[in-house]
């Protein structure tokens, strides 16, 4: 429940003045500052990855930085500052995880599953002959 307040500035700040039925998030100072930090990082990343700066990549980078700044502004407040959220993300990314029992396709397992036609001796002999022919020719 919101308490009544006679302060007109506070009342305007708490009132949505946009089009009816279409909520547009208020531009907050922390979103602007987040964008000012994220945008140069994205530009440096594009430069380091040697991605050419075209209209498409520039537009996509701009949209990504706006999206990232809005996410930062939405998930941070007075109780959760940006530094705490960044530290939490870093801890989440670098935390030790229990080993997963994933099966990977290695050459040993694949070799047991599929045998070359004619057996391994014929396969190795043919490979040796091809190497000699390449060396001579």
Number of strands: 0
Fraction in beta strands = under 5%
Structural class: mainly alpha
So how many helices? 6
User: Could you name the ranges where pLDDT drops below 50 across 5 or more consecutive residues?
Assistant: none
- The gross shape turns out to be elongated
Portion of residues in helices?
A: 55-70%
Order of helices and strands: HHHHHH
What does the average pLDDT come to? 79
Spatial separation of the terminal alpha carbons:
88 Å
Radius of gyration: 30 Å
How many strands, which pairing sense, and closed or not: the largest β-sheet? Answer: none
Write structural notes for this entry:
The chain has a domain at 29-93. The mean pLDDT is 79. The longest helix is centred in the middle third of the chain and has 21 residues, at 55-75. Helices cover 62% and strands 0% of the residues. The chain is elongated. The chain has helices at residues 8-13, 29-48, 55-75, 82-94, 107-113, 119-136. The protein is mainly α and 137 residues long. The protein has six helices and no strands.
């Amino acid at each position: 429940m919101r308490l009544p307040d006679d302060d007109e500035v506070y009342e305007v700040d708490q009132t949505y003045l946009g089009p009816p039925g279409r909520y547009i998030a208020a531009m907050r100072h922390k979103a602007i500052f987040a964008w000012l930090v994220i945008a140069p990082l994205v530009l440096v990343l594009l430069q380091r990855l040697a991605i050419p700066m075209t209209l498409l990549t520039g537009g996509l980078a701009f949209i990504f930085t706006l999206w990232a700044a809005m996410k930062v502004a939405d998930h941070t407040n007075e109780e959760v500052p940006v530094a705490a959220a960044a530290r939490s993300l870093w801890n989440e990314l670098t935390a030790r995880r229990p080993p997963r029992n994933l099966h990977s396709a290695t050459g040993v397992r694949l070799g047991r599953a599929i045998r070359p036609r004619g057996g391994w001796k014929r396969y190795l002999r043919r490979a040796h002959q091809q190497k000699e022919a390449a060396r001579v020719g």
